[in-house]
Amino acid sequence: MLSLEGLSVSYGAVQAVKGLDLSIAEGELVALLGPNGAGKSSTIGAITGLVPSQGRVVFEGRDISRLTTEARIVSGLTAVPEGRHVFANLTVAENLRLGAATRRDPAGVREDIDRFAALFPVLGARMGQSAGTLSGGEQQMLAISRALMARPKLLLLDEPSLGLAPLIVTRIFDFIGDLKAEGLTMLVVEQNAAQGLRFADRAYVLDTGRATFSGTAAELAGSDLMSMYLGG
Fold this sequence. Notes:
Blueprint: E1 2-11, E2 14-24, E3 29-33, H1 40-48, E4 54-59, E5 62-63, H2 69-75, E6 77-80, H3 92-99, H4 106-119, H5 121-124, H6 136-148, E7 154-158, H7 166-181, E8 185-190, H8 193-196, E9 202-207, E10 210-216, H9 217-221, H10 225-229
Helix pairs in contact: 3-6
């Protein structure tokens, strides 16, 4: 579904991603792991078009490297950014409706809002409340739900565990596991390797912008890389 071919990202003289090759098949959950500053978020930014890059981003057989971010979203690619970035002054319901901005099916949008209200009762109970008043875990639930409102073919999750209590992290990843079971294709960027590998089919490890590992989640879990710098 997605392939990165020689992807490179630079910020002035600093090269954050260096010739990365990566692929994701339909229905897979692929984990992109590595220490802080490895180039993981820059990779997500390049895929979504928010960060200038070199190389090719190919989505469903089409080179989307020169498309705008909006065009990439319309094609079926949606991201949950690091740090959640909900619209704090808007209500929970307004945040969800913004996630469906590219859709033209009002009835379907209402159905999806009701779906996420049922999946996350805390959101359902606070539809008219400002998103900025939610806890960090609740905001992450909202951010993921908002991204899913676009009905993406591929969901990119950038550090979904960042800043959350362990119990909330487990709940968030349980939900990610449910999405995988439904057949959604995902790329999950994580520093928390144990959680990132829970439902992953395959994994890549980045270190200073280069891929130092590519293989199955089981292979990575049993490798020396886990103890070297992934906290395993």
